[in-house]
Every structure is written in C-alpha cells, then in structure tokens.
Amino acid sequence: MVAIVVAEKPSAARNMTSALGGQKGSYKGTAYEVTNLRGHLYEFAQPHQMVDPSLADKYQKWDLGNLPWDPDDLSWKREPQKNVVDVIKTLRGALSRGDEIVIATDLDPSGEGDLLFWEAIDELGFHGKRFSRMEFTDESAASIQKAFEKRRPVKSMQDEGDYLKAMYRTQWDYLSMQFTRIATAMARQSGQNIVLRQGRLKSAMVSLVGDQLKAYNDYVKKPFFQNRFRDENSVVYTNPEEPRFDQKGQVPHQYNPSPVVLDGKTKKQTAPPKLLDLAALSSILVGKRIKAKLVLETYQKMYEAQVVSYPRTEDKTITPEQFNELAPLVDKIAGVVGVNTKLLTHREPRKTHVKPQGAHGANRPGPKVPASLDDVEQRFGKAGRLIYETLGKNYLAMVAEDYVYEQQKGHVEKYPDFMGIANVPLSMGWKQVFDPDASDDEAEGDEDESAKGLGSTAEPFVFEGSNKRPEHPSMKWLMKQLEKRDVGTGATRTSTYSEVTSITAKYPLLMEKGRKLLLAQAGEMSWYLLSGTRIGDLGLTEKVYADMREIADGKSTAEECLKVVADWVREDIDTMQTNAASMRSALGLKDKAVIQKERVQGTWSKTGKPVTFSREWGGHRFTDGEVEQLLAGETIEFSATSQTGKAYEVYGELGEGTFKGRKFVGFQKLGFGRLDASGNVLPPKEWCSHVFTQAEIDKLMAGKAVEASDFISKTNNAFACKVFFKEEKKGEGKKLVPDFDAGTDAPPKRWCGVEFTDDQIAALAAGKTIEGKGFTSKKTKKKFDAKLTWKEEGGKKKIVPSFL
Hints:
Largest sheet: 6 strands, mixed
Strand order of the largest sheet: 2-3-1-6-7-8
Radius of gyration: 37 Å
Number of domains: 6
CATH superfamily of the largest domain: Topoisomerase I, domain 2
Number of helices: 22
Structural class: alpha+beta
Shape: globular
C-alpha cells in the first residue's frame, strides 16, 4: 500500500520530504510518496459558462434587469488556473499510483486548505479512493512526522465539515459579484465608466474609512475653559464638577495655591502586548513605508525558509508545544534583533500568551534563526529585516517582566474636590524590549505617567480644552476596527487591504498618503452607494461565518444559506438606486448613462478558451466575418479613423495587450497600410495630400525613395522631401518614413507662399538665379522680395535666397 501525501504547495512538500526521509520511500513501515498542489489549481468559471446556454446572455450582461441570479441555475463549474498544466499532470500521475490519498494541506479555520484539496480531487475524478487527514500545527519535522503517524481516516468530501463550510464561503463570495455589478451600474448611470468592486471585506473597509473620514472632516472644534491645578511635577488636578466656560475671560479667579495631600500609593503592573497577526504586523510596517503587498510576499518567502511561522493564522496565542520549541532559541533570537538577554527573565509560559488550544499559533519567529539582521536583509530585503526585527522583539517581550509602576493619588488640600493621579514607573520591563506604540504619535499613551510622582504644592490655572477630534483613518486604525468587529482574519485583512490600496489597480478603493488613509475615486463613489445596503453591513461577515459553523456541524446546508442572497440583491438594487441620487449631488455628477463599447465573445483558437473583447477599434466596428477571422488567429485589415478625423489603413490580429499595467485580450495593430493577395504590406494611396501614382507605389514597394514637392503639412504649408516605405521601429511594421535630410533632386513647386511657374522651375533646375516678389516669412509672416538659386548647401540642395 502506498500513501500519496498531498501538500498545499511546493515549499510544504519540501518540508514533508525532509521530515519523512525523501520524496518517496517508507516511514515506520508505511510506503509513501509526496506530491503537491500549488494553492488553488482550479477556479470557478464565468457565470455565463455555468448556466444553460439559453441563460448565458442574462448571466453575462451587467444590466440590472438580469439580477438577481438564481444559485440553482449555476453548475459551479471549475476551470484550471493559469500555468498549472504541469502541476495537474504530476498530481494526476501521483494520485493514480496511490492506495491511500493523504490530505496534507494547511489546517485553516476557514477550511481553505480542505477546499483546495477536494476541488482538485473532484476535478480529477479520484473519488472512491481511501482518504486520510494529516493534522499538524506547523511544518517542523516533528509535527509532520507525528501527523503522518496519526492521520485521521476520512470517508468522503461530503463528510468533511471544513470542506463544506469553505465551499459555502467561496460560493457566497462568488455570488457577491452581483453587488459589484449593481454598484458599477449606478456609476455608469452617473456618467462614470468605472468598475466599483464590492465584497464582504472590501465593502466593510470602504464603509469604515468613509464614515471615519466624514467624522474627521465634519469635526468642529468646541473649546472650553475651566479652573484646574498643576503642581511642580506637572501633575494636573481636576474637579469633574467644576463648571466649564466658553471664553477664558469668563472663568472666575477664585482659587489660591495650596499644598497637595497624598491619599495613597498602589503598585500596579501590566503584561506584555499580545502577539501579532499579519494585519497588526503590516500596520506597524506601513508606518515605515513598507506596503502591505510587500509584507505578504516577503513573509511568505521567509515562512518557506522557516525563518518565521505560518502566515495565515487566526491564532492570537501559541500552544505550550510551540512555546517549548522556541524556548531554547530565545537568546539566539535576542542576539539577532539586538535585545539584551538580561531583560528576558520571565521564561515560564504566560497564561495570557500561551494556551493549550490553537492551530498554527500566532505569528512569531521560526525554528531557523538567521545569523543576523544583515543576513535577513541580504536574503529577503529591507522588508524582511523589518519583519523579523518586529516579530522577534514582539515575541521576546513575552519573556520579559511586566511593566511595573506606582500609582499615586492625591488632592489639593484647600480644595479637596480637585484630584490628581501620577503613575510613577518602577520597572520598564517589556517596554524596554518592544513597545508597539512608542513611535506612534496618534496612540493614546499614559497621560498620567510622571517620573517624579505627585508634587507638594499646586497652583491654580485656567485650562483650555476642547472636544476631541476623531482619529484620521489609517491602516492601523482600520485593522483595529475590523478586528473589533471580527471581520476577516489577520491574513485576509492584509491581503484585501493590499488589493484595495494597490497603486497598480485600475480602480483602487483606498489611497495611502503617508500613514493616512483616504478614499480613492472608486471608494468615494462606493461609500455613498453602500449606505444602508446589505453588502455594506459590517455584520455580514458575522452572518456568513455563523452559517459556516452551522454547515460544518451539519445543522444547515449551503443551498439553504445561499437562498437569501437573491433577496439581498433585490434590496441593494433599490437602496443603491436611491443612494445614487445623493452620490451624484455630492460629487457633482450628472444623471447620464455611459455608452459602453460593444463587446463580442467567442473561443480564441490560440488558447482554446472563451474570450471577450471590444468590437470597435479606431472607429471601426468589426463585422461578423472579421470577428470570426480574429478568433481564428487570422490577420485582418480595415480603414480606421484618427482622433483628428483622418482615415488610415491598418492591419492586425487578436492578441494580448497591456493597458496601465493590466493585461487584456483585444485587437493588436501589427502595422499601418494595406495588404496584397500574398500578405505583403502595401503603402497608403495618399500621404500629406499627395496621391501616389502606381509607378510611385511600385518604387516604394521596391524600397526606393519617392520624391515630391507638393506634400502639405498640418499647418497647410507645402513642402518637398523624399519618402521611403520601410520599418522604422522593429516589430511595428512598415510605414511611410520621410527623409528631410536627404534633400530633393528637383526644385520645389512652391516656396514661402509663392508658387513657381514652369519656366521658373526649369531655370532653377538649370542652376540659374530667378527673381521673385511677395514671399512670406514663415516666422514673422512679413512680405519680402528675393533672388533665388537652387544649389547645394550644407550637404543637400535647397532654395538659397539673396534678399533685394
């Protein structure tokens, strides 16, 4: 019997190969072979490809009249991702050799690891095999070996709650594309040709940031003035019942200096900050100009090298086993990140940070400790250095002592209602190792902290205060809000944030400006449209996750839970239509629909896959025959129109192009001109108002120059030159290329606004000088008379004047 161990990705397969003793072999009497996926090998097809052909048009068009979709119409058909043909081929071969298939994908609370395994099994048709599950907390050798020995038998895909709940979540998110279509339709009805992408997490982010920006921008400072006392140590004494006044001059001067009475001292302490997740880590690093996308990419590489722990964890604590694994490495990690080991004296597990329950554990340093931060930077760049330094210090703070301080409370002797508090640091503890708020100017610190404690005498003064301005949204603020509302995981928050703030995205929703977060154009429009919608409700994710738990426990089914989506789509159509009027008013948009370019769809012979592309190019609408030719990979030619209204010939084929960093399929120009029966490019019939004779066209085709003096420029001036029909830039095809430096062999027919007679042209050609009047200067536009000679000057022949 051979057990085929299916890892989630190549790096995981390498770790399993190392742990079990090879890519194939025998481990404790069980023959095995390690193979791997590469994340999701399959993805859902487009909606119109999942339904009966009679419904395809309805599911392809973005018109509101075609919504909502009926989930029962969808087959949930999948298609391979790009560039996974070799992975699928290798996987199929390995699975066919096995008697038992072992699920060794990641253990995600969302069930993602199970989903990507079972979708591959489903598409490759390996149901009916014997299955088992390896359950491991990390990819260390010990964890892998233990998981292989104690793998859990699995009956089938439909018996796995993790798969069922993950499948429901991905189906729900697929159906949420309808909300994107609704919002986009509202934008296009408002004259904006823009795509407004909506989703559970994207819409939550936009709603939160938009609401907070409004509160921040609508803030009106309301100052107040009040009597308070302050001692020589700057401790302030306040009476909560003391009246407040609108003007400083209104405050009565009724108090005198007074001694301070110490009421008591209490020793207090605080535990180290909690361990980080990816969102918190990225929030810290964004203040150091490290983008979320780079954090994700770099962290993944570091994880694959076992320098840091598993990235997509939901855990905020670690298990005792995970604590014990790093315990011998604490001093080594401290040496790398520059922490004095004398501060790391709390070597026993803290109940606040180490708990028996958990999976992968919170983000932390990995089992392979680098030689130095310079070594980390050399391998993973500046982002890697900051990631390891931050994670390392955060983890080490857990084994430092508590921050200890003495809290002193007192009052003003003559006016006992005025009370003050001073927190006197006694031992900085973990704050000497890692203080997440140390460099954050907007973080709320301990305003009562005082190195000296309460003073002996308090002086009255007029305090000027005001209502507090709401915090400007930032990544750190947003991640805290999402965590507070339990929307998404640390990893999904970070990846989605990276997506919605990407500077290469065609329609980003949010913009970063330093540490501040703003709404991009698409985000601003979305914020207005989301008010009161289902997709904009921050409780939506809570509902989806509650459904997932019910499905995993067998108390509900995906089909039952998905039925509600259609009603929500109907509600959001009505709500967004109402909100669109407010959006247009606020943003100065008109109620004028964008006319969409016609698009056409078919199977492209080059890839064998369906493609959709614009049916128009350069003012030309492709005929049905031309569409068929393009899909068949043939080259077509047609007359296009420039932006100035001039017609020109162009030829090309269907291909992949790039616009503003985004790839698309569409007509790709191969060159200008016409093609003959043999496919050779022909010169244009006319250029700069000169119509070529057949003899001139033949010369151009032969690679020779054609000379003329009746070319007309854009400024309506006649000029003479030689033109060639050739490829000026490699790959752009042949076109007419003028050569002004070569000069011409015959005098021009016109010069400075005066047309020569045949006799004058003949005289010039013979080398004679002629006399003319009424010429107009090109620069000054002034009239002048001159004698003209046609002769060589500066290496080429030209009209040389001598002024009368």
